[in-house]
Amino acid sequence: MKQGVCWVLGSGFSAPLGGPTLDQIFSGWLHTNLRGMFSDQPAELAGPELAAWQATQSLLMPSFNWELFDACHALYHFGNGFRARDLPSLHAIGTYRSGVAPHYWRDPEEFVERIERAATAGQYGSLNAALKEMLQRVSKPGGDVVSDLWAIHGMANTILAASCCQFLAGADASGERWSPYQRWARTIERNGHDRVVTFNYDAVPEMLELDPLIAVGTYREESPARIFKLHGSTTWRRIPDGFESATCRSPSKGADEVGAVAEACLAARSYDELAIVAPGTAKMRQAQGALGSLWAEAERALSNSRAVFIIGYRMPETDAAARTMLTRALKGYSGRIQIVLGADTNHPDPRRLAGILRAIAPSAMLDVVPMFSQDFLAICDRDALVGDG
Questions:
Q1: Which of 131, 102, 107, 136 shows the shortest CA–CA distance to 118?
Q2: Nearest to 276 by CA among 203, 326, 225, 207
């Protein structure tokens, strides 16, 4: 028997709250913003906001390798052909003087994957040699050349985690911007058979008092909704046999709890503790290992749902593991599918996703909704769309 709605979330879900989309992870403004966040303490912060700011600093301070941080940013843009408009003002741009900039990766996910592949291949890999040449170009004049590709890989993952945390430091989940999300969270709680499959690392569900599963069966009895964070979470910590929650909850609600959850966003103190499943060959291994039960349960939830609402998730071309799971779960699906990827339904992203879904589920009632995430969450009548009204 089909049950409830399965909500599939991507970076576009959190973007209206300030969360970065894939193409913004290594952008100049985010680089500058992260740098600014980890500088001197702002005098105006106090209470929960101060606690969140101090916790945010803990990931990158006090012994953080800023030279490696800058080199990682510079390497990304160098191998991306300097295509971004808001390039960080780094030494790398000044040192590249002639010729055509290389195009080794299209986006941050492909960057992380290729760095991992090169580090795994070692000195015998052709990409390894190209990367080391690029690292020489982006190194500061007179300084040491960063040559440890595993260190670059670890830094890239740290930047991914920090990017998905910075917008929640000091956030007020009771504010106006969050109202569509609060409405959505109450809808999830009210409909006990609904499930949420998210590919985001951020702590937006925790800010909304929705507890994600770390392993199947760990959900709170008083919270019937099940949230599957298939790519891990900034609120988890890696341990020898899997992951554990690093989220601390205040007994009170409101600002104190918001501060506590924001603080937990950066509970991991080193790359080895980060519990995010970053792109690369390790993603499939982790999906089959520590997070395997979550992926299997999420696939069942998709297959057994009465409707699937895809909010802000475009199924990135580089994410083969997610594409395989989603297409397998929805093959032959005949329920309702709603795709929400912005107002322009002729954009390549919604057209591609709709094309994939129509190919595997020709009998599905599929709609591409011309709305942004916050619009859909604010006015969507879930019960009417599903037929529960």
A1: 131
A2: 203
Q: Strand 242-245 vs strand 232-239: parallel, antiparallel, or unpaired?
A: antiparallel
d(CA 74, CA 70): 6
Amino acid at 111: F
Quick: pLDDT tens for 31-63.
777 666 555 555 555 555 555 555 555 544 445
pLDDT tens string 184-224: 999 988 888 899 999 998 889 888 888 777 655 554 444 44
pTM: 0.82
Check if the beta carbon of residue 261 is closer than 8 Å to that of residue 247: yes
> What's the token pair of residue 18?
């300030």
3-state SS, residue 371 = strand
Q: Token digits for 13?
A: 């879900």
Q: How far is CA 235 from the centre of its chain?
A: 12
The CA-atom distances, in angstroms, between 10 and each of 5, 157, 201, 338, 377 are 16, 18, 10, 14, 14
| Beta strands at 336-340 and 274-276: parallel, antiparallel or unpaired | unpaired
CA distances from 307 to 264, 303, 367 (A): 33, 10, 11
Sign of CA dihedral 250, 48, 378, 301: negative
Q: What is the rounded CA–CA span in Å between residue 274 and residue 215?
A: 17
Tokens representing residue 169 in the block:
């430091």
Residue-range domains of the chain with CATH? 5-19+173-386 (3.40.50.1220), 22-163 (no CATH)
The tokens for 11 are 């970076």
Contact 198, 9 (CB under 8 A): yes
Distance of CA 101 to the CA centre of its chain: 28
Q: Exposed (0-12), middle (13-18) or buried (19+): which is 68, by Cβ within 10 Å? A: middle
